[in-house]
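Possible regression after last week's pipeline update?

I re-ran a chain I had predicted before the update to compare outputs. Posting the input and the new output here so someone can diff against the archived version. Not blocking, just want to make sure nothing changed silently.
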Amino acid sequence: MVQENLKKLVRPGVFELIKYISEDTDKKLAVSTSASKKEVEIILGGLGIKDKFEVIVCGDEVKKGKPDPETYLKVSETTKIKPDTCLVFEDTSIGLQAATSAGMHCFSVPNKYTQKQDFSRADFVVSDLTPNAKIVL
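New output (post-update):
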């Protein structure tokens, strides 16, 4: 029941993008979130996608949360991937600030609650994560 209800909250294109990156490319997937480890376990575990991510850095595992870049830098350090070769997908301006402060490239994908936030620092702002996504900024 939890899994089905969670799936209803996932934005269009997310599962397909995760599947493509994890199965059809040599790229690594990671999560950098302000959420707690317990919340991430419930969400990613409930969606059945936790195993797709090589690294998961949660808000309760760092000293400073977003907009501080610590969570993103910890992902970079753990994966041994240089920040300037990372591509981040963010839906909040605070997350965008954290990603760009870490020296990472960022696609912003605002949601209905964050669409009025300032995403001017993003490399691109896209409407969604589907193949028909539109660049909006």
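Follow-up from reviewer: compared with the archived run. The mean pLDDT is 95. Marking as no regression found.
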